[in-house]
Amino acid sequence: MGSKQIAQETFDEAVQENITEFEMEPEEAVREAVLQFEAQGVDLSNIVKAVRPPASENGQRQKHQILLTLESLAGAVAEQDVAQLPQQLAALAAQCKEQLAFRCLAGRHGAYAAVLSACRLAAGRRELLLPGLAALAALLDGQPDLLDAAGRELLLQSLRERRGDAEVTLAGIRCVRHACLKHEHNRQAFVRGGVLPVLTAAITQHGSAAELVRTAASALRVMTFDDDIRVPFGHAHDHAKMIVLENDGLRVLIEAAKAFRDNSVVLSELCATLSRLSVRNEFCQEIVDLGGLNFMVTLLADCMEHADVVKQVLSAIRAVAGNDDVKDAIVDAGATELIVLAISHHLGNPQICEQGCAALCMLALRKPENCSVIMEGGGALAALQAMKAHPREVAVQKQACMLIRNLVSRSRELCGPILALGAEVLIAEARAAHRDCDDVARAALRDLGCQVELRELWTGQRGGLAQ
């Protein structure tokens, strides 16, 4: 993707030039304009790649459809035409959902102010507030910078005042989630505004509403992200602690899972959120004490065919295995066999192979007795098969190398059986193919007893480091 950007008007003029001067058909003119700008390294992700309607008879330039819809909405807001607003808001939301370029174009032409004004006009009218929040959620998707303090207060107020209304709550939480994704300032402002208890209360109060529970859990997870490259560091860890310690988040999520034993989509999201909250030893232990481990092991066994669920459960097991006592509980629960089965069953899925190897790697760390269980269960063989299946996936290669090293670092008797499986060749290939694997691959080969060149990069003598 290119780093340069152009205005929508520049693209539209290039398309019209292709039509008028080179007599191209509209679709061909658009394709040619796209190729022309992409060849120049221009990022067109925020550009509507469509033909603008031709100029009217008086020569007035026409606008894209979403801007015409926005004009109608702005007119209805200005006239306070409450009867027309729901229809206009629904039309804008539908067009914004089509693609990011439509949302960007609308955002640059005042859509946020128009939608926010429409939401303010609701004044207790549910039939207007609901489409207003839906339009706001569609507009904020990929554009969190649009939200300001006024919009944030409106969302928090609506979520508190309408907490008993599942549809309004769902629409409001979608707005919060989109506003906080890749935007640290919005995350911190919402947390200061008290959004965390609102989200956990929504899960508890509407525990039978699958989409609401899934979206609220996702919003909680977003609060623990550190994905905004514009800030040097975020409050992800602090937010995770607040969710657990101040809002009983672990209990809320695990209890919510009991209502959706047959809904793999919701269970996958709940597992993903639990893994983001496993940031301290005591939190990992609390998940086990609340029955979360049994829930995850059962879910892994019952949903083995659902790749998304398997990936998230493996990620959650990997996270809670950061606690050494929990490692033993996981092994005692029979999870190692299920993890190996998941890798073998989804051998073509690099993400599952990565998470499976990573989970086994955590279980083996500092636990020789667990290493024997993993080895007997075919863990080393599964990891090596994953390396064979995904030679170009650096994450898979790296986690598999780390697993092999953990298996043998305190259990030297396992070196022979693992080498007999062909580990040395695969690890050497990973080291040669991926620079990021060099350190872990070298450590694995060293602990396996293989010949490894260990270079001393600096000897204390004056001069530069050896390259």
Summed up, what is this model?
The chain has 467 residues and is mostly helical. 68% of the residues lie in helices and 0% in strands. The radius of gyration is 27 Å and the shape is globular.
Explain what this protein looks like in three dimensions:
- With 467 residues, the protein is an all-alpha fold.
- It is built from 27 helices and no strands.
- Helix 20 (335-345) runs antiparallel to helix 21 and helix 23 (379-389) packs antiparallel against helix 24.
- The longest helix is centred in the last third of the chain and has 16 residues, at 394-409.
- The protein is globular, with a radius of gyration of 27 Å.
- The model has no long low-confidence stretch (mean pLDDT 93).
Mind describing the biggest β-sheet?
none
Oligomer category? single chain
* Structural class by SSE content: mainly alpha
Helix content: 55-70%
Q: Averaging pLDDT over every residue, what do you get?
A: 93
Summarize the helix and strand pattern as letters: HHHHHHHHHHHHHHHHHHHHHHHHHHH
Tally the beta strands. 0
Unreliable parts? none
Sum up the overall morphology in one term: globular
